[in-house]
Specification:
Layout lengths: L3 H21 L2 E6 L4 H12 L3 E6 L4 H7 L10 E4 L2 E5 L3 H10 L5 E4 L17 E6 L5 E7 L1
Parallel strand pairs: 1-2, 4-5
Antiparallel strand pairs: 1-3, 3-4, 5-6, 6-7
Length: 147
């Protein structure tokens, strides 16, 4: 015999699956100026790679860099945070995913300056750059090198 409650249960389960998947995605908080186009492009890169982004326009993103523990010499045009880790500059989504999977003892990741070819800085050429793992006390190690 047909049981209507089965359909309601199945429909509820199908609706809940995408909601659960969305809830599982980490939210990346991004602090940027309203005028910076490359910051907007980096946010698009993160979203295209499955992250949920909460972007906030601020007067001075360097205030957040300092608050999150990233030394000034590793600064860029925007700062972010995800699951307790700082993100400074045009960090590729692949390295953020790796960071969250490995969970190293670190302040976070930084891509100093604004290297051409990094996410959000795509153009006619790409320069080599490093994604730095920033540790307590400002020491760094190369987390990933890009050519």
């Amino acid at each position: 015999m047909f049981k209507p409650y089965f359909i309601h249960s199945a429909a509820a389960a199908l609706i809940a699956l995408p909601l659960a998947a969305c809830a599982a995605q980490p939210v990346i908080e991004v602090y940027k100026t309203s005028m910076c186009g490359c910051c907007k492009e980096w946010v698009k890169h993160l979203e295209a790679n499955g992250f949920t982004v909460k972007a906030t326009d601020v007067e001075d993103p360097s205030d957040y860099r300092q608050k999150f523990g990233i030394p000034e010499q590793y600064g860029s045009c925007h700062s972010g945070r995800v699951k307790g880790y700082a993100l400074e500059g045009h960090v590729p989504a692949a390295e953020i995913k790796r960071l969250l999977a490995e969970k190293p003892k670190a302040v976070g990741l930084a891509v100093p300056a604004m290297p051409l070819g990094s996410p959000g800085m795509e153009g006619p050429r790409s320069d080599p750059y490093d994604v730095l793992l920033v540790k307590d006390g400002g020491k760094t190690a190369v987390y990933k090198h890009y050519n």
